[in-house]
Each structure stands twice: as C-alpha cells, then as structure tokens.
Amino acid sequence: MPVNQLSRRHNNLVVCVQGEENPSDKEWDEFLAVLRSGEGAAKASVLVYTDCSGPNSQQRDRLKATLGNAQTRAAIIAEKVTTRFIVSSIAFITPRIKTFRKTEIEEAFEFLGLDETTKGMARRTLREFIALVSGKSS
Questions:
Q1: Within 13 Å of residue 74, how many CA atoms lie on the same side as its CB?
Q2: Residue 1: pLDDT above 80?
Q3: 23 within 8 A of 5, measured Cβ to Cβ
Q4: Which of 41, 88, 130, 135 could be stapled to 70 by a disulfide with Cβ–Cβ 3.0 to 4.6 Å?
Q5: Pairwise CA distance, residues 66 & 62, whole Å
Q6: 49: which residues sit within 8 A by CB, 6+ positions away?
Q7: CB 18, CB 133: distance < 8 Å
Q8: What tens digit of pLDDT does each residue of 92-115 get?
Q9: What are the residue ranges spanned by the domains of the chain?
C-alpha cells in the first residue's frame, strides 16, 4: 500500500507531509499520536505540507479533542483552494494557523519561529517525506 501521509516530531516541531489523497483515519490517528507525543500538543508547532484537501469533519473533531485548549501554532503549506478553506475552519479550533504557498516555505518557518537548526531539520524531513509520499526515492 502506498504511503500517503507521514509525520514526525523533532523536539517541539511536528512535521507532516500529505500526498494527493486525503488522510485515512489510520493515518490521521498516527498524526494525532505524534502530536500528543513528547511534551504534547500544547508545546508543539506544526508544519504541514500537503497536496490533498485535508482532514474530514470527523478527523477535525478528533484534532479538536487532541488540542483541547492548546494554542498550537500551525503552518500549512498548500496550493489547493479547498485546503485553504479547510484551514479556515480549523482556525476555529486553533486560531494560530496560517496557510502558505509552496514558494513561501521560508515565511512558514518564520511564522513558526524556527531557529536555523530547526529549519535545517525541517527542510531535510520535508525532502525525505515528499520523496516517500510521491513514491520517488531520493
């Protein structure tokens, strides 16, 4: 079965890459488990790079339950208008969320407040995950 979504936590940064298909419930639950890991969602910043539309309404409900009152900052890198619409609905759950185009990755890093070391790690993880999700080995 092809890989459609991957996530990993590095200290307080959660990096998630989604392919062209919307995440399955299993993939979404794996993402939520990564978000809860370490110091939990309250201490996390989230970077999502996606080619799909995003989580469905039940998955967004599970995100809301996972976040609770946490004011998690999230940068969503996406081109699709439908994704941007879904992000606006997630803003009711966590208002510190913003979309960026694929050409605005550096701006997304700045929005998340990443230091140079974390930016480097994020770039490496994005390259690795994009290759795996697209089926192209690097």
A1: 28
A2: no
A3: yes
A4: 41
A5: 6
A6: 15, 16, 17, 18, 77, 78, 102, 126, 129, 130
A7: yes
A8: 777 889 999 999 999 999 999 999
A9: 5-134
- β-bridge mates for residue 73, sequence order: 45
Residue 75 DSSP SS3: strand
Q: Report whether pLDDT(137) > 50.
A: no
The pLDDT-based confidence of 91 (bands split at 50, 70, 90) is: confident
Alpha helices in 12-104 (DSSP H): 25-36, 57-67, 81-90
- Give the pLDDT score at 81: 85
What letter represents residue 135's amino acid? G
Class of domain 5-134: alpha beta
Paired tokens of 63: 């995100």
Q: Compute the distance between CA of residue 91 and CA of residue 24 in angstroms, rounded to an integer.
A: 21
How far is 91 from 67, CA to CA, in rounded Å?
12
Cβ contact 36:68 at 8 Å: no
